[in-house]
Amino acid sequence: MLAQAAGPKTFNPLFADDQESLSVLSCLMAPLIRINRQTGQPELELAESLSYSRDRTQLSLRLRRGLTFSDGHPLTADDVLFTFEVIYDPNVPNALADLLKIGGRKIAVHREDELTLTFTLPYAYAPIERVFDAVFILPRHRLERPYREGRFRSAWGLSTPASEIVGAGPFMLKEYVPGQRTVLVRNPYYWKRDAQKRRLPYLDELLFLIVPDRNTRFLKFQQGELDLLAPITPEEAARLQPQVEARAVRVLDLGPSLISEVLWFNLNPQAPRIPPWKRAWFQDVRFRQAIAFAIDRQALVEVLFSGKATPVWGPVPPSSPWYHPGVRTYPYDPTRARTLLAEMGLTDRDGDGRLEDRQGHPVAFTIVTTAGNPIRERLGLMIQEDLRKVGLHVQLVPLEAKSLFARIEQSFDYEAGLLGLALGDTDPSALNNVLPSWGTSHWWYPRQKAPATAWEREIDELMDAQMRTFDPTRRKALFDRVQEIMAEQVPFIYLLARDLIVAAKAHVENLKPGLIPDFLLWNVEELRIHPLAARR
Hints:
The protein is of the alpha+beta class. It folds into 2 domains: 1-221 and 515-536, 3-Layer(aba) Sandwich (D-Maltodextrin-Binding Protein, domain 2), CATH 3.40.190; 257-498, Dipeptide-binding Protein, domain 3 (Roll). The protein has 17 helices and 21 strands. The strands form 6 sheets. Strands 13, 14, 15, 16, 17, 18 and 19 form a 7-stranded mixed beta sheet that branches. Strand 2 (33-35) and strand 3 (42-44) form a beta hairpin. Helix 2 packs parallel to helix 5, helix 10 packs antiparallel against helix 12 (334-343) and helix 15 (454-468) runs antiparallel to helix 16. The longest helix has 18 residues, at 472-489.
């Protein structure tokens, strides 16, 4: 039994963009290839084998023989072909369409026979196998009719009868009660077996309770009503310590997560209401470096996360195999910060403790951030105090999420931002929408038609080059250079990555948590309750 803050928004995999829907769908559906969340490596799932052409632009996949959906209907190459047809249909807007484009071009999919498909890529693309992890294969026999009739967008909504939701995952939908629970039951046709040839999954039922309040979710776990809880805070981990010592609960700290807290300045030349003198500060790398030196990251780690976080200096946390330990760092050094600011002509000209520029403008700016997030609000207050110590006046502007992202990604009406940047994978491809100048999450100046700076142009070229090489050493070297540029130019002032901490009842077996979402349920077919616990 688990708990979610909200119920799923849809049972249609193409329109699921929230973690609650994706967690449920990952139990109901299956991809051709999935990423092992513990090792971080792609593994064959519905596909039995794969091979590449010599130039790596063609990928041949063969399906496992005898696959069926949860209604017993065979799963064949026709279902894969149908899935890609729907994804690429411009009349069915979905996020997967962009994910499955390489250099803006579609992957050509050809059916060779009932079990074999060939995928032709625009060019060799190193992370292609990882891309398949997000693509759940749709049952053509169930969804082709609504698709041909133009009703696909409304197919498999929350009011759809459970028996009509069909997938190739280890579970089937039994019941969804809005605001209360989602109940899944074992798929009797699931293909996987364990080493003793027993058909998986082990669990007969999986229950997701809908519990909006975080404290209530924790209490339910503490009282034994839930079997798994993730992520949990350092404070919650400490409160579970008596149960850990009694061997009733396991608390696992997986180290720095894929969520980094970042501060950045709006460098968009079209941004309204940023006066020219402020724009000049923000665009000067010395200003951004000074801010980076002025923030006491270790204090943030200790005060806000009880030591369960790690200072970071770039887009890759130390827990990732792609981490570059040699990038430029910004240890807390307010003296160095003041020196850099003084080089720009930002000094305290009237002895009031605040800096002014050469024209007498006070060095002050606002930071927009998330309202209702206690940790981030405290983070903002500590940053505000650190910057005050070097003569900068900062005002925090908490906004609700919709308004905040409208400013960051649409109107650009803000000066600086403070947010958590979450990655969905450890691979550099997870940063494809962040680091290249055309990216939507290139928050300091998104969706550029051409790179605004020479260093952004270099990042664009490096990101493109590392995607095209299958040589891991070469790819790592290219991505290392990307990390070096990001650390030198600090368009994002990376602050810290909080640890990913998960909790499980001791009777849950075969748990293999990883940093990549879904942390706990990616191998749900292997999870089981210890037999003695099950009999109690």
